[in-house]
Amino acid sequence: MSSNAEWFDKFAKIPTLVTIQETLKLNPADLDKAEHEEQKELLLWYYDRWLPVVAGKHFWRDEIRYFKLLTDTQDVAGKQKVNCTVTSEAFGLLNYENY
């Protein structure tokens, strides 16, 4: 996966599932602190590289993810669909853990 290659090139390691989970729990205000630079980069990687793969580019493409939340909905064939369901994100993390 090229997104992991980008992360590896910068930090010489691949983020673990535990690291991802801990980063997602951080207070957003703390990400501006210098000691959280790696977590900030991980969060950006997660939303810009990983979630488009998990949710599908139809639901989490640039014109949606820059202006909407994961939990926002959009019209798909006359039905309101969530941009990224909890189950899609969980399944993506399960796959990540098992790769």
Give an overview in words.
- The protein has one domain (2-98).
- A hairpin with a 2-residue loop joins strand 1 (73-76) and strand 2 (79-82).
- The radius of gyration is 14 Å and the shape is globular.
- Strands 1-2 form a two-stranded antiparallel sheet.
- The longest helix has 19 residues, at 37-55.
- Helix 2 (17-24) crosses helix 3 (37-55) and helix 3 packs across helix 5 (86-98).
- The mean pLDDT is 86.
- The protein has helices spanning 2-11, 17-24, 37-55, 62-65, 86-98; strands at residues 73-76, 79-82.
- The protein starts with a helix and ends with a helix.
- With 99 residues, the protein is mainly alpha-helical.
- The protein is built from five helices and two strands.
Q: What is the total tally of β strands?
A: 2
Largest sheet: 2 strands, antiparallel
Low-confidence stretches: none
Give the strand order, joined by hyphens, for the main sheet: 1-2
> How many structural units, i.e. domains?
1
Strand % is 5-15%
Category from helices, strands and their pairing: mainly alpha
Radius of gyration over all CA atoms, rounded? 14 Å
What's the N-to-C terminus distance?
A: 11 Å
Features:
99 residues, two-stranded antiparallel sheet, globular, mainly alpha, 5 helices, single chain
What is the strand and helix layout of this fold?
Layout: H1 2-11, H2 17-24, H3 37-55, H4 62-65, E1 73-76, E2 79-82, H5 86-98
Antiparallel strand pairs: 1-2
Helix pairs in contact: 2-3, 3-5
